[in-house]
Design a protein that fits this description.
The protein is 34% helix and 11% strand. The protein has helices spanning 12-15, 88-99, 104-118, 169-173, 184-195, 205-213, 219-227, 235-241, 258-270, 273-276, 279-289, 299-303, 331-342; strands at residues 8-10, 27-29, 129-135, 140-146, 215-216, 254-255, 308-310, 313-317, 320-324. It starts with 7 loop residues before the first strand and ends with a helix. By secondary structure, it is α+β, with helices and mostly antiparallel strands. It is built from 13 helices and 9 strands. The longest helix has 15 residues, at 104-118. Helix 2 (88-99) runs antiparallel to helix 3 (104-118) and helix 6 (205-213) packs antiparallel against helix 9 (258-270). It is globular. It has a 3-stranded antiparallel beta sheet, covered by helices on one side. Strand 3 and strand 4 (140-146) form a beta hairpin.
Length: 345
């Protein structure tokens, strides 16, 4: 998930992935995860998707993530559970956790870690996240808040230029000032401690293996890399997303990220402290503060981050009880407001 100003910049050595519009020595990543917890087992197929229909790149930067068309899919039914993600590798990771005896919390975490690798423009451990869990036995729904927080030194004039005028959108996004304190890993750990069944380290295995062996670049990833005119300005991103001849990594081309795998191994064995404290935290701070338009995140900001369990926000729609993530997310508030309007018709 992106912060209020845009996306999150982090050092590529440790996060291993990037979304687009990178800055020197830094990469942009984010994550949003939502799940419902069910207790059952069944078979699930996650075949590679067909080529997108009629890719559309107009207005790429008119919204947080650019469109690349749509893909027509058949309706899928399941008796006991279903795993759905934006990429087949993420879906397989979730299914693998369920087959191993894990539950939906385990599956969601494993899938999200894989999406950091295969959907780098929108997912990553350097961002923030919200998670919803539902226990079918106890009928208990919980909300987990891993939203980024502003650095302690943040001030109201953060995105004002020296001339007293607001910075341009992309100037603000591609700067150290847009960096919030990431919350994904702390949130994952908190939810796992409360609901998870498999060992913490087990959830990292699919992403680690895929980062080491490589995955085939998807049509969407290739399209977004090709359309992003700013991406190649960052040396680290250029070396990862472009070939030696300057062409973007092609559809189907294998893409490996051993540095990301090494970082995940540390987090798997040492827990989130490996990310929020020590050399990784120092590298994050160094990358942010060394930017041409530096940010003010500190090691203390990272070390002090705390994820939170929150009450879900629920409302009625006809015969249904609809629940979602409450503040600081606007999701449930907006959905319930729309349903309340529709209920009159």
């Amino acid at each position: 998930m992106r912060n209020a100003s845009g996306q999150l910049n982090l050092n590529a050595q440790h996060t291993g992935m990037a979304s687009f519009d990178c800055t020197p020595r830094s990469l942009l990543i984010g994550l949003c995860a939502v799940l419902c917890q069910l207790d059952a087992a069944a078979q699930l197929s996650a075949a590679p998707p067909p080529a997108p229909v009629a890719p559309v790149m107009r207005g790429l930067y008119a919204q947080p993530e650019g469109p690349t068309g749509y893909t027509e899919r058949k309706v899928v039914m399941a008796r006991h559970f279903m795993v759905a993600t934006a990429n087949p590798h993420g879906t397989r990771a979730g299914y693998e956790m369920l087959r191993a005896g894990g539950n939906a919390t385990d599956a969601a975490i494993a899938a999200a870690l894989v999406l950091n690798l295969t959907e780098p423009q929108s997912s990553g451990i350097g961002g923030g996240a919200f998670m919803l869990t539902f226990n079918a036995r106890t009928r208990q729904a919980d909300a987990w808040d891993g939203r980024e927080t502003a650095p302690a030194a943040a001030r109201p004039d953060r995105f004002m230029g020296q001339d007293g005028k607001p910075l341009g959108l992309w100037e603000a996004i591609n700067s150290g000032r847009s960096v919030g304190v990431p919350g994904v890993l702390r949130m994952m750990k908190l939810a796992h401690e409360q609901n998870g069944k498999l060992p913490w380290a087990r959830l990292f295995e699919p992403a680690i293996q895929l980062a080491e062996t490589g995955f085939a670049v998807s049509p969407r990833l290739n399209a977004l890399i090709t359309a992003d005119t700013r991406l190649r300005n960052d040396a680290v991103a250029r070396g990862y997303f472009f070939n030696s001849d300057g062409t973007p990594v092609a559809v189907g081309q294998p893409l490996k990220n051993p540095a990301f795998a090494a970082t995940l191994r540390r987090i798997a064995s040492e827990g989130p402290d490996a990310f929020y404290k020590g050399d990784i935290a120092r590298d994050i701070v160094a990358a942010v503060t060394a930017h041409r338009l530096p940010g003010d995140i500190t090691e203390a900001d990272l070390a002090g981050y705390e994820a939170k369990r929150r009450d879900v926000l629920c409302g009625k729609y006809r015969a249904f009880k609809v629940c979602g993530m409450g503040p600081p997310s606007s999701g449930a508030i907006a959905v319930l407001a729309m349903l309340g309007t529709l209920e009159r018709f």
